[in-house]
Design goal:
The protein starts with 19 loop residues before the first strand and ends with a strand. By secondary structure, the chain is of the alpha+beta class. The chain has one domain: Alpha-Beta Complex (Fumarylacetoacetate hydrolase, domain 2). The chain contains 6 helices and 16 strands.
Length: 223
């Protein structure tokens, strides 16, 4: 398998290979409620390593024999510069692209780990768990503002399963990036998964998935 590299839809030069994806748990209220969670004062971050990255294309491979594999559709933003202890304005200026992403989750494994009070890495950071489309370039103030009002939809076998808009984020993209940068340095090429709307559910081999994030629209088949 070829090593993952970022790509833009319009063939702009790719950025450096990412070190990590920073993800946030339950950043849409309706999803928090469906998972039985309650609002917390600080964002709950977790990381997916480079080995989790895979290009979102015509086929989507999922793990076998590890229980339910859930889809979580998210807006993903791409960083063009390093951020450490950064302000929200500095974070916004570092964004150079956005993509559609699937935060794949081993839900049964996650539930078991939660019950034991253990970290979630095995359920969230496995190989192929960060499926990311090509990126749309963010190169203007207008494009940056559009991230704050972006529609997300996911259909599974023709049925609408997830629908939301980034206006519903409990914490804005700038806030998330700033808070994350105070926890650990974000490197050029790193990405932020911004959270998923309600409606997450299991994938089965053979499912046809259609997803839309902003102007990105694509289909994939689960294998």
């Amino acid at each position: 398998m070829a090593a993952y590299q970022h790509h833009f839809f319009d063939d702009h030069l790719a950025l450096p290979t990412p070190q990590k994806a920073v993800c946030v748990g339950q950043n849409y209220l309706a999803h928090m409620q469906e998972m039985g969670g309650a609002p917390v004062s600080e964002a709950m971050f977790f990381i997916k390593p480079l080995s989790a990255f895979v290009g979102l294309s015509e086929q989507l491979a999922i793990p076998r024999n590890q229980g339910a594999v859930h889809f979580e559709l998210e807006l993903v933003v791409l960083l063009g510069k390093a951020l450490t202890n950064a302000s929200e304005e500095e974070c916004l200026q570092a964004i150079v692209g956005y993509a559609a992403g699937l935060d794949l989750t081993l839900r049964d494994v996650q539930a078991e780990l939660k019950q034991r009070g253990h970290p979630w890495e095995r359920s969230k950071a496995f190989d192929g768990s960060a499926a990311i489309s090509a990126f749309v370039l963010v190169d203007s103030k207008e494009a940056l503002r559009a991230l704050a009002e972006m529609d997300l939809q996911l259909h599974c076998n023709g049925e609408l399963r997830q629908q939301g808009n980034t206006r519903q984020l409990l914490r804005s993209i700038a806030t998330l990036l700033s808070q994350a940068s105070h926890c650990f340095t974000l490197a050029p090429g790193d990405v932020l998964f911004t959270g998923t709307p309600a409606g997450v559910g299991p994938l089965q081999v053979g499912d046809d998935i259609k997803l839309q994030v902003g102007e990105i629209s694509m289909q994939t088949r689960v294998v």
